[in-house]
Amino acid sequence: MQDFLQILITGISLGSVFALIALGYTLVYGIIELINFAHGDLFMLSSFAALTVLDRLDIGFRDATGSKVLGMLAALIVAMIFGALVNVLIERLAYRRLRNAPRLAPLISALGMSFVLVQIGQSWKGSAPVSFPRPIANQNVLAPFGSPVTLGLNNLLTIVVTILLLIALSYVVNRTRIGKAMRATAQDRDASALMGIDINRTIAFAFLLGGALAGAAGLMFGQFTGTMAFQRGFEAGLKAFTAAVLGGIGNLTGAVLGGFLIGITQAFSDFYLDPRWTNSVIFGLLILTLVFRPSGILGDSTTQKA
Amino acid sequence: MASMVTTYNTRLRQQLHDDPTTSIVVTLLAVGALFYPLIDRALGWNTVGTMFPIVAFILLALGLNIVVGFAGLLDLGYAAFFAIGAYTVAILTSPSSPVVDKLPFTLNFWGALVLAFFVTALFGVILGAPTLRLRGDYLAIVTLGFGEIVPAVFRNADQITRGEQGLNAIAKPTIFGMKFGNDIVRWYYLLIATGFLIIFVARRMRDSRLGRAWMAMREDEIAASAMGINLVMTKLSAFAMGASFSGLVGVMYASRFSYAAPSSFEFSTSVLLLAMVILGGLGNIWGVILGGLLLGTFDRILSIRITGWINSLGETIGVGFLETVNLSRLRFGIFGLTLVLMMLWRPEGILPNERRRAELRADTTDGETAADDTLYGERGAPV
Question: What is the CATH number of the domain that holds A191?
């Protein structure tokens, strides 16, 4: 039981990272029905951006709590802005021209973009995994309660930040003018354009939101694992995409749910099966979902327009 | 109906003869391929050995072209079939494989080749069957997942495959007592002969009833199905054909290098193949060969030479950046950029297939979508 709870906690904190990345896939898919292959690699690059900030600030274990908090916030904000801007740039350069082309054209362009980003990551930080500064000690926050299960401070922060970001995202999408424009564009692009919505701006905004969330995920993933490598974006991206599909692509709640499910699946597979088989388990899950329930757990059939 | 088919076939032949670019390319390719080892020796390039993997990848690209170019099914896990072919011959003939001793018979190269053909075709069907209902982009993801799982299985099932170490000492072919061994020229010609066979088969299939069904399906599934095309059989046969071609090449590749290891069959291999097909021209066999030749030679030969030139240029003019730049380390970025730029500027490839071009550029010719283009294209702001 203790093992079980412990793994569940690991899974949930890992899952919150996947949820943030999955939201980027779902936001973009919801609005232009493109599987943004480059998203996982964008996450990797933003993670490198966060790492660079932490390295430059050079905050260590011994610094005061205040400067640690400020340093982490700076890294978070820089990573989010970086992710957002790069994602908007990618949309402008590689996808916008292809918006009315056959489906496969933007998909292949996204695939190419993904390789370009991998190359940038490799040239930026080299081929070997880079160690990620973790200024906040990962002490067990449950220790005072005498709990046998440990919940690291870092993991707790990851979960808390994810929840805050989700609340913010849900506010933007459901309560603001631009959020309304996004939902309208997702439903019917032609009609939205006729209603005076600036389609290009709205789509760019969806990429901006997705990129910012990937940036936040980049910092938190680094805090979780302590290292980052240029080829990890692809794998994390594919897992997050699985999460988005599992929850129902195009559905924001679904992406979060899927993210947590994938995180938990990964944690359990790592522990009870063998870490070497984890990827196969998750990709197998992806295939099964796509084949038997392409609309996902929460997806409705309206997202399935051809 | 019959007369329509005949006119179509005649028109195809005429097209081939009328189109000067294609006939020049074809002639150059055939002559170049046949005399390459002689030219190579005369000029002292010493590249016949390096040509083997390049030609092998071109043949793989031809197989992928059946799936993506003819049938329009985007397969991102094509290297998986290459791996299955390579591992079939490795597991059946390598002395380090535990299976070999338990076999009631010993298989030679040719036996394994035939077997691998059917095994990979079977796996093509196994992958194809559950994906029949899926739309284009979902299909791409499923094949991608498959392409990730297959090398992982070979990597992790180390009782049979020896994991990361790989299997070695794989059987090599013999024709009429002529041993292939490590003779690079013989291997080269074996592969070229296979290439001619594959091109012949691919062209006949393209112009056959099945090939026309593939293209009809690619253009409009619903319309094709309404015209009486059995979508299930048509899709599965595309997967099976593409897979078995890849399997054949996999067997030769493993046998030539006497080695099969999981790292050769990863996602980047599938993407390199896709880049070859797209650069040359989706659906056009000669285009795919040209694309494969360009990317393959760049990847294996030119990137190293050009790097040398740039570095020495950098030394002469004293620019530090040029002295250290290394193109072979930038290969992923270059392939990726190829895909993006081709999609943006020339989605139909260098040597386009006419029908494919019409499809890929449909938005600029079709009245209704052209109107959409002015609405959302970068030219116009929404009205």
Answer: 1.10.3470
Per-residue CA distances from B156 to A285, B43, B119 (Å): 18, 45, 20
How far is A155 from A9, CA to CA, in rounded Å? 8
The reply to whether residue A196 touches residue B133, judged by beta carbons under 8 angstroms, is no
User: What's the structural domain count of chain A?
Assistant: 1
Render pLDDT for A159-196 as a digit per residue (tens, 0 to 9): 898 899 989 998 998 899 999 999 999 888 889 999 99
Residue B374 pLDDT more than 60?
no
Residue B69: closest CA among B185, B241, B293, B232 = B241
Quote the pLDDT of residue B19.
64
pLDDT tens per residue across span A100-151: 887 788 888 999 999 999 999 988 988 888 888 887 777 777 777 777 777 8
Does the residue A72 lie in any domain? yes
Are residues B332 and A200, on separate chains, in Cβ contact within 8 Å?
Answer: no
The answer for B 207-246 residues in CB contact with A (under 8 A) is none
- Whether residue A306 is contained in a domain is answered as no
Q: Check CB contact of A44 with chain B, cutoff 8 Å.
A: no
Q: Which of B234, B237, B80, B129 is nearest to A287 (CA)?
A: B129
What confidence score (pLDDT) does residue A304 get?
40
Query: Which range of residues forms the domain containing residue A102?
Result: 2-137+146-292
Q: Residue written as tokens 């980049």?
A: A218
pLDDT band at A50 (very low <50, low <70, confident <90, very high): very high
Q: What is the pLDDT of residue A33?
A: 84
Q: Contact, A266 vs A282, CB < 8 A?
A: yes
Residue A302 is assigned to a structural domain of this protein:
no
In this complex, the residue of A109, A193, A198 whose CB is nearest that of residue B344 is: A109
pTM comes to 0.84
Instruction: End-to-end CA distance of chain B: give it in Å, rounded.
Output: 47
- Does pLDDT of B373 surpass 50? no
Q: How many Å lie between the alpha carbon of A286 and the closest alpha carbon of chain B?
A: 7
* Tokens standing for residue A33: 């029905």
* Main-chain dihedrals φ then ψ at residue A193, nearest 5 degrees: -65, -40
Nearest to A119 among B76, B333, B347 (CB): B333
Q: Which of residues 97-156 of A touch B (CB under 8 A)?
A: 97-109, 111-120, 122-123
State the average pLDDT for chain B. 80
Mean pLDDT throughout B185-197? Answer: 87
Decide if B155 touches A, using CB distance below 8 A.
yes
- Cβ neighbours for B176, distance < 8 A, ≥ 6 positions apart: none
Q: In this structure, is residue A297 part of a structural domain?
A: no
pLDDT given for residue B382 in this prediction: 34
Q: What is the DSSP string of B19-64?
A: -HHHHHHHHHHHHHHHHHHHHHHHHT---HHHHHHHHHHHHHHHHH
Residue of A nearest to B221 (CA): A306
Res A48 pLDDT > 90: yes
